[in-house]
Design a protein that fits this description.
- The chain has 482 residues and is α+β, with helices and mostly antiparallel strands.
- The protein is built from eleven helices and 25 strands.
- The protein folds into two domains: 253 residues, Aminopeptidase; 214 residues, Alpha-Beta Plaits (2-Layer Sandwich).
- Strands 9, 11, 13, 15, 16, 18, 19, 20 and 21 form a nine-stranded antiparallel sheet that branches. It has a six-stranded mixed sheet with strand order 1-2-6-3-7-23, with helices on both faces. The protein has a four-stranded antiparallel sheet with strand order 4-5-25-24.
- β1 and β2 form a beta hairpin.
């Protein structure tokens, strides 16, 4: 039986089910965009696409509501493509295998894509539901997950409305009115290699079983970073025996905390038993530190024939280890203006040996632009200390909160009437497209809402069915107020 069987309202869940069947990695949103255009044309609605692939669908007002202000509803078309290492799955062609677990929808070993597919589904469901609303502009942006690329390159003439409801938040009962800015810092460290000498044994060291998670919303909860933990183990091993590294690969996306890291290394044969003991000790040591939040952590060392010669000379192996230890990861500062909110952080997102170089991907976030730059410079310093260089990419602005906006007041009023309680107002550490869109269209009033999504950007991602329904009903009620 389909995971979506008997779910109501059908307009919402039929749209989301279709979305899960359409491959939509970042920068490859063509198929989902074509589908959205077909749905718009089927209903006689006009649409326009800008030069980078962002799409707007214009929905006329209901009779009698023509004089209402135009409201922009916004979500992004792409999804984070993460899977467990043992799972066979091709995000470029395979439909998401959705399963239902009580009130939750999740995927079988991959990300679900509720971030931000549920927003797209809600916007599409409005086209068929009997909802009272004024003129709507449905803005579907591309390549959000790579660093808000679609929003950064958005043609502002695509939209005319000055009220924007972003549907990319992940907690029901919360309205977001501000977020951090950020940038990606990519590093490259040159390596010297040589043939592996005789009388050595090759091993594969793996850090596995971590939860992963969103590098903005979950950076403060203490989740393990597989690359950083692997570097700690390598450092201990390298202080015991000459160590050569044949391959290293960990992490993938800039906005995901790495769940897995694997290294193929070689040591003298006589050191084999000693390093096996050290790895077992390190596994226990790290489990004692993070086992409460990472109960499935495993650190394994397995003899392998995957020597992949040549390997790094010991000095280059040391440079790899030092760099991975020095590159910052985690919370770098808390906000004094918004107590309890992370102000600045850095994510060591991905590390990989390619040819004769160590390639690094890191992501910095802050609500203060100068502190975001300072965090990026810490990465630069660590990479340059190893003789490497960095480049900066995907920089985007923070979203300055406006607690006195009329839109927020309407949001509070509708939520109070529907639930009998006040909605929580927050500023978040993650990056949202609102900051970018607001910088392009001065005077835009903005909020961000969304249903309960847990474990975004990881194969543990799951969406609350009941929460999605309630948020959809709230959205319809909010639109009725304009």
């Amino acid at each position: 039986m389909s995971a979506f069987a008997e779910l109501e309202p059908r307009s919402l869940w039929a749209a989301f089910e279709t979305i899960t069947r359409i491959p939509r990695p970042s920068q490859k949103e063509e198929k989902v965009r074509e589908w959205l255009i077909q749905e718009a044309e089927k209903r006689g609605f006009s649409h326009r696409t800008d030069s980078v692939g962002n799409l707007v669908v214009r929905v006329p007002a209901r009779p009698g509501r023509e004089s209402s202000p135009t409201v922009v509803l916004q979500g992004h078309m792409d999804m984070v493509c993460e899977k467990n290492r043992a799972v066979e799955f091709d995000f470029n062609k395979d439909p998401i295998r959705v399963v239902r677990d009580g009130d939750w929808l999740k995927a079988d070993g991959t990300t679900l894509g509720a971030d931000n597919g549920i927003a797209v589904a809600m916007m599409l469901a409005l086209l068929d539901d009997n909802v009272e609303h004024g003129p709507l502009e449905l803005l579907f942006t591309m390549d959000e997950e790579s660093g808000l690329i679609g929003a950064l390159q958005l043609d502002p003439s695509l939209i005319s409305g000055k009220i924007l409801v972003n549907i990319d938040s992940e907690d029901e009962g919360v309205v977001c009115i501000g977020c951090a800015g950020g940038k990606n810092t990519e590093g490259e460290v040159p390596l010297l290699t040589e043939s592996i000498p005789g009388k050595t044994t090759s091993y594969e060291l793996e850090v596995l079983g971590l939860n992963g998670g969103h590098s903005g919303t979950e950076i403060h909860v203490g989740l393990g970073n597989a690359i950083s933990l692997c570097a700690r183990v390598l450092d201990r091993l390298a202080r015991t025996a000459p160590l050569r590294i044949s391959s290293l690969s960990g992490g993938d996306k800039h906005n995901a905390i790495p769940r897995e890291c694997a290294v193929v290394l070689s040591v003298p044969q006589e050191a084999g038993e000693k390093i096996k003991t050290l790895v077992a000790e390190m596994e226990q040591e790290i489990q004692s530190e993070v086992g409460d939040i990472e109960p499935n952590l495993r650190i394994t060392l397995t003899e392998t024939t995957r020597t992949a010669a040549p390997a790094t000379v010991p000095d280059s192996s040391a440079a790899i280890i030092r760099t991975l230890l020095l590159v910052p990861h985690g919370v770098l500062g808390m906000s004094r203006i918004a107590p309890g909110v992370v102000e600045t952080s850095s994510n060591l997102a991905a590390a990989k040996i390619e040819g004769k170089s160590l390639k690094l991907l890191t992501s910095q976030r802050s609500s203060v632009a100068s502190l975001c730059n300072a965090a990026s410079e810490r990465v630069r310093a660590a990479v340059e200390a190893a003789g490497g260089s960095v480049r900066y990419a995907s920089e985007y602005p923070a979203w300055r909160p406006n607690p006195d906006s009329a839109l927020l007041a309407q949001c509070r009023e509708v939520y109070q009437e529907m639930n009998g309680t006040e909605i929580k107002v927050e500023v978040i550490h993650a990056g949202l497209e609102c900051g970018v869109i607001g910088s392009k269209i001065p005077g835009m009033e903005m909020i961000s809402i969304g249903p309960d999504i847990r474990g975004p950007h990881s194969p543990d991602e799951r969406l609350s069915i009941s929460s999605a329904v309630r948020v959809y009903e709230f959205l319809k009620s909010l639109l009725g107020r304009f």
